[in-house]
Fold this sequence. Notes:
Blueprint: H1 2-6, H2 11-27, H3 41-49, H4 53-65, E1 70-72, H5 73-76, H6 80-83, H7 91-96, E2 102-108, E3 114-120, H8 122-131
Antiparallel strand pairs: 1-3, 2-3
InterPro entries: PORR_domain (IPR021099), PORR_fam (IPR045040)
GO molecular function: RNA binding
Domain PORR: 38-131
Amino acid sequence: xxxxxxxxxxxxxxxxxxxxxxxxxxxxxxxxxxxxxxxxxxxxxxxxxxxxxxxxxxxxxxxxxxxxxxxxxxxxxxxxxxxxxxxxxxxxxxxxxxxxxxxxxxxxxxxxxxxxxxxxxxxxxxxxxxxx
Length: 132
């Protein structure tokens, strides 16, 4: 823009500079590609049947990221927004629906109250390590 106000550069030179910039932009454009969608009926059936599959996967990653692969329920509640569960749906009840993935332990907090603590089954830990 300075060259236009100062007038020290000729118009043809400035037009050439603009054209080169335009050419570079065109070379970096997007390409439309059409791909044939491949259907996997078994996977589609599992996803349709398990409505909360994403929530379970997120919980597995949260629990596995804790140091001892166990998390008390009050550490899991802040992640409720990532799970996409309805507000009236209690998190411990949701986790108890999947006993082949999650194991429940009792944990005593600082006041001595028993609090549910959830960990992963050995099979779930093995699968999570394979996927990572």
